Amino acid sequence: MNKLFLIIIIILVSIPASAQLFIYGVQCGANYSHYSMSEKDASFQVSSGSIGFHSGFFARYDFDSFFLGADLNYTSTLGGTVKDNHNSFDIRSGSVNMPGLVGKKFYPGIRIFVGGVPTVYIKHNENEFESFMQTSPDLQPGINGELARHEFIFYILAGAGFEFSKFIMEIRYEHPLDYFFREDYSTGGVVTNIDNYHYISSLVFTVGYRFN
To answer: Is this prediction's pTM over 0.85?
Structure first.
């Protein structure tokens, strides 16, 4: 056990010592969010496709033919617009994302990668959306129920990048493995039951600058 612990310490210490292999920097960019809904109830429609932004930090550890990477970003998203037959409502959210990547290097400077994105939502307008639901003329009278929202969602990703000098460009697609929130309403006979699941997927474009 002591030998294993010593080996782990040596590996962790040696990574930043290999400056030609370990790179880190800052990044920012735009994300095009595709908002979708299961639409089991026909009273609501979704206008998909909205622009948001993200910014944060990245780190990459390069081996001969592949690399490992990790990011820490804040993402602001206008997920989409939900419409009934009278009004509309914009879904907004803010989240902290921690993508982990494993990828293949091609020269000169081309990379492809896959990975996962643990995402924690820290900002949203869920309460306003619930009020929009409850006051919609399409759902009256007798609406009762609530929104069930996930604070944590895991995404899977795939993408490609290009590195030149100290600049990095990447584009990737992020797909959710669970819903953002769920409508669970009963409307007293106007609409028998609403059981919609809302999802947000994203196409992410990033530019970064490496410090070393």
So the answer is: no
